Amino acid sequence: MTSGSRRLGCLLLRWEPGAPAPGKRELAVELGAAEERVPSWLEEGGELAVQALNPVAGLPLEERRAYSLVAAGPGAAIGALAGCAIGFARISAALHPDDLEPFRRAAKDMDRSSVKAVASRLEDLPVDRACHIALMGCGGRRPQAADCLPLVRRLRPEGQLVLFGIPQEELQDTFEDFSQRGFSLRGSGIRDGLGFLAGSLDHGRRLEP
Questions:
Q1: Separation CA 149–CA 21 (nearest Å)
Q2: Helix H or strand E segment including 100
Q3: 76-92 pLDDT, tens per residue?
Q4: Global pTM exceeds 0.90
Q5: 4: which of 109, 119, 130, 157 lies 20 to 30 Å off by Cα?
Q6: CA-CA distances (angstroms) from residue 148 to 111, 135, 167, 168?
Q7: Which distant-in-sequence residues (6+ apart) come within 8 Å of 20 by Cβ?
Q8: Measured between alpha carbons, how far is 123 from 121 in angstroms, rounded to an integer?
Q9: Measured between alpha carbons, how far is 82 from 12 in angstroms, rounded to an integer?
């Protein structure tokens, strides 16, 4: 890690003065306006959300602009801001109250109009099953299927659910539990003792028991 920045595939997180500029094919996620919250977001596994978004970040811009994203939970602010950098058409986020103002400042600094809804409760975000990607921060705990249902209700039938910030030792059991409920794995990763699982829901199943 270079001071004040982290490279994750083609995405570059930057939050301190003097952080390196993005390369020719990199997208910068500008976090300087939320610098005081960045350490917490990283500790909560926010990098994993960014890592999970890298496949989309590599698509042509016209394809990226067709995507929509909903994000919730610890560390989700970084994932939502990465969505701004990628160029998603519509982003909504349910964040901890301490994250709301720093998130808004960072989104404004990137001059993005894609952030359509920001709230402290997931219940206050639109329910339209129109999102292509749903990010759920687990905050170092093993997720339960019931906890994901509010996000799944906002996800397109062919959309992708990303669970991040799962303890590394709980990844396998989490995958086995969710796979029995219709979750089909598309990607995974581990960083600093935490991991993520990304996948779709088979045949329209909604993580039912």
A1: 39
A2: helix 97-109
A3: 999 999 999 999 999 99
A4: yes
A5: 119
A6: 30, 10, 17, 19
A7: 2, 5, 12, 14
A8: 5
A9: 9
